[in-house]
Design brief:
- It is a single chain.
- This protein is mainly α.
- 75% of the residues lie in helices and 0% in strands.
- Helix 1 packs parallel to helix 3.
- The longest helix is centred in the last third of the chain and has 32 residues.
- The protein is elongated.
Length: 166
């Protein structure tokens, strides 16, 4: 029988393990999306965020250390759902332009998910007076916002003239 989650600390640990898992999954997804694209700017964006995500994982490890826990991943159904959605779409054999546009949209969804998760973790940390972990979480949140802004710019500037409307 699983232990009941009854404290703010347990909730924070749950979310931390969840994001640790999610960031590791996103490393794989970013690498895949960078390989799939032929567009240099999109590729560079995915590669840059891959590098940022490596740093985010390291910051999460520091948070585990601060709270006296060994880094541990907990399966994150939310991020797995986004990854599964991407896998299913790939079966539709999209053209390169459609795949690039889809991957930018998938990245947007993932960034929004991560932003929400980090905001919730920061809120829990504040309520639990865990001020020493907040700078690490805020740095991850800042990078997620930057990544979202960059992806949105790429979507807005995407040349759809080669894609049929219907």
């Amino acid at each position: 029988m699983k232990q009941k989650t009854t404290t703010l600390h347990q909730l924070f640990e749950h979310d931390l393990k969840d994001m640790y898992f999610a960031e590791h999954q996103l490393l794989k997804a970013l690498k895949t999306m960078a390989k799939e694209t032929k567009d240099d700017e999109i590729k560079k964006t995915f590669e840059k965020h891959y590098d940022q995500t490596v740093g985010q994982v390291e910051r999460l490890r520091k948070v585990f250390h601060i709270i006296g826990k060994k880094p541990q991943a907990k399966k994150c159904p939310g991020i797995l759902g986004l990854i599964e959605e991407k896998k299913e779409f790939s079966k539709e054999r999209p053209t390169q332009d459609i795949l690039d546009l889809y991957n930018l949209g998938a990245a947007t969804k993932a960034e929004r998910y991560e932003i929400s998760a980090y905001e919730a973790m920061i809120d829990s940390a504040l309520k639990h007076d865990m001020t020493e972990v907040i700078p690490y979480l805020e740095e991850n949140l800042k990078e997620e916002h930057e990544a979202l802004d960059k992806v949105k710019l790429l979507v807005d500037g995407f040349d759809t003239s080669r894609i049929a409307l219907v």
